[in-house]
UniProtKB/TrEMBL annotation:
UniProt protein name: serine-type D-Ala-D-Ala carboxypeptidase
Enzyme Commission number(s) of this protein: 3.4.16.4
Enzyme kind, highest EC tier: hydrolase
SUPFAM superfamilies linked: beta-lactamase/transpeptidase-like, Penicillin binding protein dimerisation domain
Amino acid sequence: MFLIVFVLFSILIVRLGFLQIVYGENYSREIEQKIEVPIDSSVPRGKIYDSEGKLIVGNTPQKAITYTRKNNVTNEDILETAKQLAGYIQKDSEEDLESITKRDKQDYWILLNPDDAEKKITEKDKTKIAEKDLNKEQSDKKLYELLRERITEEELKSFSKDELEVLAIYREMTSGSMLSPQMIKNKDVTDREFAVVSENLNSLPGVDTSIDWNRYNAYKSKDASETLSSVLGKVTTSKEGLPSDMLEFFESRGYTRNDRVGKSYLELQYEDVLQGQKQIVKNFTDKAGNLIESKTVREGQSGKDLVLSIDIEFQQQVEKIIERNLASAKIGQPYMDRAMVSVMNPMNGEMLAMAGKQYVKDEETNKTRVADFALGNMTTSYSMGSVVKGATVLTGYQTGAISPGERLNDRPLKFKSTQVKKSWNTSGFGLINDLYALKRSSNVYMFLTAMRIGGQQRYVPNGPLSIDKVEGINKFRHNFAQFGLGIKTGIDLPGEQTGYGAGQVPPEAGKVLDFAIGQYDTYTPLQLVQYVSTIANGGYRIQPHLVKEIREPSNDGTLGPVFQEVKPKVYNKVDMKDAWIKQVQEGFRLVVNDSQGTAYGYIKNKQYKIAGKTGTAQALYDGPLPVNPMTWNVTFVGYAPYDNPEIAISVVVPWSTTDKTHVNLEIADEVFKAYFDLKEKHTEQL
């Protein structure tokens, strides 16, 4: 036995000597080897300016306290640091305490009561888990889940307020990635808290003080509403980090989970521009996880700034015009709760204003308030009525159904087994041409045009309506789409709606006639302004856009150099003769400027050379109230000056109980005046 032991020890000594002499240096090098860990830190987000260089959205610097977790730190070490930090800062607000989950409390209880926690798992439990075909990691997880389930509600409620404050800090510390700064507190950090923590950093391993930023809208009114807020969008908070539904998308682009990002509309659409270039620091650690050295690989740079095509002063005026006129028109109108206005430069697609207002009921106070509804211009759609008759007439020209100047007989149309179809002048206008039909908004002229497009050339009183409804509706939709009706406009915002009806075959042929007067498919206010812009500029459908320029960041409060200018994007030239478009332009001019025009008495600022088209559509109410009466949508599209257009607008006010309201035209008239008054003001300031 002695000889065997002697031989074994001799072999072991020889082996250890071999390892020490032959591989010792390699193993020593491996132990001392640096491990490279890249860390990125956030930078201020790019600002948003209006077309005149006025700051709309900026960043307010704010004091912040962060924690960076090292590789070799245990949960017990973190808890000790959290207890120390709780003595220097306050983190016991209602928001802080409400963010603590049941799982957080369970983990915290186990950490504070290791002996009691151990008693909750019996040997029988361990044996039962061991009998399952699980590896050690899976077994430990199962036992831990069992332990958490056995913690009682009384035990979870046993925490004092001070202990919950420590937990609020602890959960923030453990929620971040290794060696990645995690925000502990960046809201309402007092000067005293910032100073005390800064003085005690040596006794608070991993804790640091820094400057964070908070996004703000410079145009915030007394009632806390923000101009253009719904279009500008929101940015996640430091607690939210990356949105869960876009986690993989952002992580694939190098973001970390606690990064703040744009989560809606402009902030989301231009995230890659606004986010900026994060500072990248490489931390080098040894095998034990001890930090050896830090090296800055790339300096951070603030996000690039956006310059919008919107003049914020004009935007505010349009919002006031909508709010004032809607409030007046709403009296005695139980369903009229919203109005939208889109304003666009028809020559280059720049959005000059995108405004909307909506009456909403506050669920907490049960009081009605006026909310921003600018997004309604692209996210809601309605039957728009006679404003589409310009597209109907042009479709008639293009298909050969009618020719410019052709006369048709406007009188009530009676088809077999259907209700009479007629114009608003119930006795009819008699023999009229296309210009008169546009000026007076004849329905029958459009019905007869639609019949010819569908293959029925003659109207026979009390005879059948024998058009090909599929061919008719397809021809209409094909041509309407050339103007942007029924398809996305392509605006630089996510979430645009196309409206309803596209692709559907009408249940009966009469619906094709309704389509011709804007009472079948639905469109968005934004589609309307693109449509009228296409007529105004001679037939070019242009992409609407809110961002005019992207600028390099600047530190002195002024706009930096231009990084990128957004050029006009023409989608298509309509497949129609220039002379045909000019004919419809003349019809639109007569609507406003001829004494018989449907807008003549309500568009008073004729000095601006306004052209346009009125619309009234009977539609089923489908708003927030639990009723479905028949209502009226009143609309308007127009542009000015008609001989050299620089502004095009659409106005949509749905769900009136009467077709006698003219709130759509009153809004339009004031918007044109506001635009040209502001233009004159800017000219005088030059």
